Amino acid sequence: MSEPTNTGREATERAAANTGEQEREQSAKAAANVPADVAKQAHANGWSLHALEQNSWAHVQHSPLGSMWDLQGVPVLEVAKRTWTGIDEDNLFGRASQLAYSFFSAIFPALIAMSSLMGLIAQSSGKLYYELLGKIGQLIPPTAFALVTDTFQKTTSASTTGKVTFGLLFALFSASVGISAIQDTLNSVYNVKETRPFWKARLQAMGLTLMVAALVIVALLTLFTGDWAANHMEGLFRGAYVLAMVFRVCYWAIACLLMVLSFEVMYYFCPDVQNRKWRWFTPGGCVGLLGWVVGSIGLRIYLHYFNSYSVTYGSLGAVIILLLWFYLTGAMILLGGEVNSEIEHAVAEKKLLNGECPLPPASAVGRVDVNVARKAS
Question: Where exactly are the structural domains of the chain?
Answer without folding.
Answer: 88-356
